[in-house]
Each structure stands twice: as C-alpha cells, then as structure tokens.
Task: inverse folding
C-alpha cells in the first residue's frame, strides 16, 4: 500500500507541477497577448490620428485652393466690369462724334467739302477704334495678370510646402 500512496503522491506532485507549469505558461501567454493587443490598439490609434490629420490637411489645402480661385474670379469680374464701363463711355463718345460729323455733312457747300469731311471723320474714327482696341488689349493683359496673381501666390506657397516636406 505504501507504493500505491507513493505512486499516487508522485502523480499528484507531477500533476501539480504540470498544472503549475500550465498556469505559468497561460499567464505568460495572456500577458503577451495583452501586450500585443495594447500595442496593436496603440498603433491603430496612431494610424487613425494620422489619417484624421491628413484629412484635415487635405481639407485645408483644398479650402485654400478654392479661396484662391474665388479671389481670382472676383478680380476678373471687377476688371471686366471696369472694361465694360470704359467701352460704354467710348461708345457714347463715338455716338456724339458721329452726330457731330452728320451735322457737319449737312453744312457743306460743295461735294468736295462733303468728301473731305467724310474722309476726316473716317480717319478720326479709325484712329479712335485703334486707340480703344489698344487700350482694351492693355486692360485685358493687366487684368489677366491681376486675376492670376492669387493663383500664382497659392502655387508658390504649395511649392514651398513641398520643398519643406522633401
């Protein structure tokens, strides 16, 4: 019977050692799993934070681009309005000049005088058209430069940011 007790005791001791080893191993695995899970959660949170930051940056970037385009459009609209006002003024002046020329044609005494007055009117009319066309071309070129400036400034800012990032 002593051998049975000894064998049973040995089994109990052996089972207890195995249970203790199993317990320690499962505790180690549980601890490692917790560390891995905590690490994965931290990395996931960092990735989410980076994604949110990138989204905010993208939204801000696009907002600034749109603001530049809007500012450019405002400048172009205001400039076009000014050119339109100038052209209306020019049209009024031409109408007054045409009225004067017509009155002058009625006051001529000879056909030669009529042809001379008509030639003078045509010549002065062509000069006015050329001047106004030149003025309009200059105004449009200046307006294009002013309207493009907000876009050029934005492109310059983007280039600087890209150089910093590189």
Result:
């Amino acid at each position: 019977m002593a051998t049975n007790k000894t064998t049973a005791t040995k089994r109990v001791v052996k089972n207890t050692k195995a249970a203790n080893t199993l317990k320690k191993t499962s505790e180690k695995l549980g601890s490692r799993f917790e560390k891995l899970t905590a690490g994965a959660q931290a990395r996931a949170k960092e990735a989410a934070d980076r994604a949110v930051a990138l989204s905010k940056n993208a939204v801000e970037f696009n907002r600034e681009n749109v603001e530049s385009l809007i500012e450019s459009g405002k400048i172009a609209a205001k400039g076009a309005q000014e050119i339109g006002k100038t052209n209306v003024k020019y049209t009024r002046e031409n109408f007054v000049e045409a009225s004067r020329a017509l009155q002058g044609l009625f006051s001529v005494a000879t056909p030669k005088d009529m042809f001379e007055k008509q030639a003078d009117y045509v010549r002065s009319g062509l000069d006015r058209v050329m001047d106004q066309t030149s003025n309009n071309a200059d105004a449009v070129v200046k307006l294009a430069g002013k309207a493009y400036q907000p876009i050029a400034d934005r492109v310059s800012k983007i280039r600087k940011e890209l150089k910093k990032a590189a």
